[in-house]
Design a protein that fits this description.
- 2 copies of one chain form a homodimer.
- The first copy, chain A, is an alpha/beta fold and 263 residues long.
- Chain A has 12 helices and 7 strands.
Chain lengths: 263, 263
């Protein structure tokens, strides 16, 4: 991990809870799922967890254990007796469901939710995203409290998402939008492609060795044979080091061939 | 569930394995994670699971139990002794990792992977996506076998994703691209907005009742008061049924007031 990513990590961790949406688990059943949801939140920079009437009471050691590195999110979770109390201070409330509920509310994908959430938070709003209990999902009365519905494009034959995975998808989309979608590292930045002269110098080297080996037969096919060969290396996006490596390979092959020819 | 979504479900389920990427779990440790990965695959229309040297042997009842509705994916999983054997028939192999590995390969996000996978499959290619064991992830020798690296934008302070959640993110992005990103239902299609004349008819009704109640005071503020009020309803995107409901509300309020005035 580079210094850059460490400082990003601290920035993400230090982010105040108002700067990211809160995850509200409504009547969650299994402590393991609460913990795994917290772990997914930590993966994607969310930090505020609220629980409404967790079935097995609170605190719950199974939730702490399943959170792995994110036990602090579990330990700081606030518990409420009702959905209404849990969402009091939010400016906008979204509910997740995989089934159509006959309630005339906008339906968003998790990606659209992420864009809207980032925008609203930038304007100082507090956002809550509700997830229903395992198996049954949210009740219609819970859904009626929300401004909009979040749904996932799922295979209709298998629409039931694991609770922590649903949290993970929402958090992932949020992190993509709020942090930018680029992967966390990019080898391309560290090893730029070789300059053209280095690449073409290698091609000349390779071509000379292949000439010495009578590779280009018949002679009239030579241009297309060379072009096809060189295009393979073009597609590889060679770095300077790659070219050094390939020159060594070509030298070794050519030298070995001469040695064998001599013996 | 509508007839339309049922037939889509059957189409997704019936999809041949060559039409979607295969998920390859390399030396997975816990049966629960294998089963939860299979469940996530089913959620997002993937069907081919391969396992390389699962720690606890195979078959594994915990994997079947954790798969919930996706036991058939677990039961049809093929088991291999080495990564090399497991990937033999793929045209393109991707590996998932959350850490930079010093290997000069392209690094893609799961969304880019999805677009590339859909395109390659449309061209008849078979694609495999490798996931490493819990905790340790893939070894460098496994990564060396792949064409490209898939990485997730994660909080660097908490980069370790649960195995099944990583599978879930890849499958989710694949389904978004291959099926279109639209949520599985959209209330807007079923209940179109009311036509302008219906909405404006309601506004006239409301305005008349408010006039009767001497609401628009002072008179010079009337235009802006009316405009602000009507804009609230504009923003709600009223359906025909909404307008009927609101007319009933206005009638009830106005009638109730008159009754009270009379008594």
């Amino acid at each position: 991990m580079t210094d850059h990513s460490q400082s990003l990590g601290q920035a993400v961790t230090a982010r105040s809870s108002a700067a990211s949406p809160a995850v509200v688990l409504v009547r969650p059943q299994m402590g393991e799922n609460i913990g795994m949801a917290a772990r997914a939140m930590a993966n994607f920079g969310l930090c505020e967890l609220r629980l409404v009437a967790p079935r097995d009471g609170w605190p719950n050691q199974k939730a702490v254990d399943a959170a792995v590195g994110a036990a602090s999110i579990v330990e700081r979770a606030r518990v409420f007796q009702s959905v209404r109390e849990a969402i009091e201070d939010f400016h906008k409330v979204f509910v997740t469901t995989s089934r159509e509920r006959g309630q005339a509310k906008p339906v968003l994908g998790a990606d659209t939710l992420a864009r809207e959430t980032v925008e609203r938070i930038a304007n100082g709003q507090r956002i809550g995203i509700l997830f229903g209990p395992e198996r049954t999902g949210l009740e219609n009365d819970d859904i009626a409290l929300a401004d909009a519905i979040v749904s996932f494009p799922v295979n209709p034959a298998h629409p039931s998402l694991n609770l922590a995975q649903a949290v993970s998808l929402v958090a992932y989309e949020w992190f993509k939008v709020s942090q930018g979608a680029a992967p966390p590292f990019n080898i391309g930045h560290e090893t730029p492609p070789a300059t053209r002269d280095v690449v073409l110098g290698f091609f000349a080297h390779l071509e000379a060795e292949l000439d010495a080996a009578n590779y280009f037969i018949p002679a009239n096919k030579r241009p297309i044979m060379a072009r096809n060969l060189f295009n393979i290396f073009h597609r590889a996006g060679l770095t300077h080091q790659d070219v050094q490596t390939l020159r060594g390979v070509v030298r070794a092959l050519a030298h070995g061939r001469k040695s064998r020819a001599r013996s």
